[in-house]
Amino acid sequence: MSWNRRDFLKNTSAATLAAMAAGIPLTNLLSSCNKKNSHATADTVILLWMAGGMAHTDTFDPKKYTPFSKGMQANSVLSTFKSVPTILDGVHFSEGLESIGKVMDKGTVIRSYVAGDMGHILHSRHQYHWHTCYKPPQSVSAPHIGSWIAKELGPLNPVIPAFIDIGQRFTLGEGEELKAFHTAGFLGNEFGPFLIPDPSAGLESVQPPVGMSSSRFERRNKLYYDLINQSPMGEYGSDYQKESLKRSMEQAYILLNSPEAKAFDLSQEPKEIYDIYNTGKFGLGCLMARRLTEQGARFISVTTEYEPFKGWDTHDNGYTRLIDMKKQIDGPVAQLIKDLDKTGRLDRTMVILASEFSRDMMVEGRPDLKVQEQVEQPDIIQDIKNYGMHRHFTDGCSMLMFGGGIKKGNVYGKTADERPCKTIENPIVIDQVHQSIYHALGIAPDANYVVEKRPFYTTPDGLGKPVLDLFS
C-alpha cells in the first residue's frame, strides 16, 4: 500500500478519534481500587475462538448419526458424523476430533452454553457479546475480556504485551464490526490487543519494516508522537487517553528490542513439533500461543478467523466444510494441551475453546424464540451441499475448558438427544463464563470503573456469578 503524508495524517486522526469515542475517563477514576482474590488458580488465559458458529451436534455433543443419501428427510438429520469415544468412559465426540478426545482427562466439556437473545442473528453482534459480555450497542466502548484482564492484573512479563490476538484480519467482510470489540474501550490503548493477523509472519510484527534502519525507526517513532500532539487526540483527549496511547507505543518499542521477541519466530521450533501444529493459520497460532505463554503473556486469543460464509460459518456444505475445520483444530489443540501439561504450565493456564453460537439443520435461534430465517433448507435433501448444520442455533452450544483449576475429566450440562437439541441441564450464559474466568484469575466479581458517572462492571451491573462446579 502506498502512503503519503496526507493519508498518514488522515488515518492517524481517524484512529485517535476512534480512541476518543471510547469515552473520556479521568486518570484517578481508572486507578484500580478493586479487591483481588489471593486464592487465584490461574495466571494466564488462552482463548481458542471457533469463529463463525461451531455446530455442537457435529463436534463435542454428537447425537444420532444419519449418513447422507439423496432424497433423505432434512428433519431426520441430527449429526452428520459418527460419534467416537474419548478417553472418558461414556463420553463421545464427533468423528474427526479424536486427538482432542484423548486429552479430555485434563479438562471439562461444557454442553449447555446458551447464547444471548439479540433478535436477528448477526455474527459480529454475538461475537461482541461473547468477548465483552455486553450487548451492542453501548454508550461507551465496552472492553474486551482480554483488556479487563490486562488492566486488572498487568503483564506477567513487562516486555510481552499482556493481551495478544492472533489470526483475525480486518480487511474481510464485517471487518469494522469486528474491530468494535477488539479494543480496550475506555480502559485505554495500552490495554488493547497486540494484533498478529498471520502467525507465520509473527516475527514481522515485532520488527521494523524491511530496509528501515534503527535510527530511521526512532525518528519515525518521534514523528508519531508529534502527530498525536497535533491531532484531535492531542487537542481534545484527556490526559489519561494521551498517556495511555503513548504507553502502548513505548511497550511496542521495548518489545522490538528485547530477547523475548524470539517467541514470535516459529522457525525456532523443532520440526517434529512444528509439523503437528502446522495445519494452517489456526494451528500455527496455537503454537505461537504456547511460546508466548512461556514468555509471560497474560491473555492470548487464537481464532480460526471470522470471514462470512467461510470456516465454521456453514450456510451451505456444512458436512464437507467441517471435515476441513476439524483437521485444522484437532491436532494443534490437543498438542497445545499436552505441551502445557508436560511443562507444568497447564496448572496455571486456563485454555478455553468456544464459539459465538451453535448450528442446527432446522431451527434458527431457539425453539421458543425463533428469529428470521437466513438459510433456505429444503425439506428433502438431494444435494450434499444441503447436508449439514446451516442455521444459527443459540440454545445449546459446546465449550471446552482446561487448566487453571478447572475439573479434569468432567462433563457439565446436557442437551436433548432429539431435535430441538436444546439445553436441558445446567444452562450457562456469558456473564457466568466471564466471571468463572475472572474467579480463576482472582479478579473480584464486582470489579468496576466509573464511566459517564456510573459504575461499569466486568459483567452487566456486576451481577455475574462464577460457576463453581466447573472447578476442582
Describe this protein's structure.
The protein has 472 residues and is α/β, with parallel strands linked by helices. It is 30% helix and 15% strand. It has helices at 5-20, 98-101, 123-132, 145-153, 175-179, 214-230, 232-236, 239-256, 271-277, 281-294, 318-342, 430-441; strands spanning 44-49, 72-73, 83-85, 92-94, 107-113, 163-166, 194-196, 299-303, 349-354, 358-360, 365-366, 369-370, 380-381, 391-393, 397-402, 410-412, 414-415, 423-425, 448-451, 454-457. The protein has an 8-stranded mixed beta sheet with strand order 7-6-8-1-9-15-5-16, sandwiched between helices. A two-stranded antiparallel ribbon has the order 2-13. α10 (281-294) packs parallel to α11 (318-342). It is globular and about 70 Å long. The termini are far apart.
Short description:
The chain has helices at 5-20, 98-101, 123-132, 145-153, 175-179, 214-230, 232-236, 239-256, 271-277, 281-294, 318-342, 430-441, and strands at residues 44-49, 72-73, 83-85, 92-94, 107-113, 163-166, 194-196, 299-303, 349-354, 358-360, 365-366, 369-370, 380-381, 391-393, 397-402, 410-412, 414-415, 423-425, 448-451, 454-457.
